[in-house]
Amino acid sequence: MPLDFTPTSIVKAAKRSFTVPITTATAFDANIAALKAADNPLGATAYQTAGASVDGVTIANEYYKATIAYLSPLGEVIGSVVIDAPTRSSYDVIVAHILADTALTAKFAADAVADRDNTKDSWNVRLKIHDPTGEIYFLNFTRKDLRISSYENDAILAKVDAWADGVNSLN
User: Fold this and answer.
1) Each residue of 6-58: pLDDT tens digit?
2) Across-strand partners of 64?
3) Which of 123, 106, 113 shows the shortest CA–CA distance to 22?
4) Which residues on neighbouring strands pair with residue 63, listed in sequence order?
5) How many CB atoms sit inside 10 A of residue 86's CB?
6) With b meaning 16 or more CB within 10 Å and e meaning fewer, what string describes 122-132?
7) What 3-state class would DSSP assign to 57?
8) Gap between the Cα atoms of 136 and 48, Å rounded
9) Paired residues of 77 in beta bridges
């Protein structure tokens, strides 16, 4: 007779869609920096695991995508380059390098122009957060939404929701 799994906890997830996408990487970064600060607004606390101290808020995963379009003199898109970067700093460096690469631009057409359309970019950061109650949950940030996952206590959702209500770029 096979054994059945017995639920041990109820893990929840929720999503907050922004009315307007975050338009600048600077605003996106400010939200992440506020949460990673020592006096973070969610009250996250450092903890010990396997004898090592872990910050209350850590980046669990991140990636950034950018599109550089190449335009004809008439403004028509004749090609594009899409990059995926593993960190925010590498994103900036790679984009700057591609925009400065006149030889690459000339490969599209002798009179092509590189165009930076930030509206097609995507930024994704997943934060691992240790609540003072001992619970660990995740916040996933994108330009268009904020997701909370792996929490059990509804007070955590209420705390995140109250914080997000006070941040203009998250409404």
Assistant:
1) 777 788 999 999 999 998 888 999 999 999 998 999 999 999 999 999 999 99
2) 85, 123
3) 123
4) 124
5) 11
6) ebebbbbbbbe
7) strand
8) 12
9) 71
Which residue from 98, 90, 87, 160 is spatially nearest to 124, judged by alpha carbons?
A: 87
pTM for this entry: 0.87
Paired tokens of 132: 């003072």
Chain centroid to CA 167: 16
Q: Residue written as tokens 């400010």? A: 30
Domain ranges of the chain: 63-120
Q: Are 108 and 70 in contact (CB under 8 A)?
A: yes
Please tell me the distance from the alpha carbon of residue 134 to that of residue 83, in angstroms, as a whole number: 38
Integer Cα distance of 145 and 148 in angstroms: 10
8 A C-beta contact, residue 80 and residue 99: no
- Whether the CB-CB separation of 139 and 129 falls below 8 Å is answered with yes
Whether residue 138 contacts residue 128, with contact meaning beta carbons closer than 8 Å, is answered with yes
- Run of H or E including 135: none
Closest residue by Cα to residue 65 from 23, 123, 114, 24 = 123
The residue with tokens 């606390």 is 45
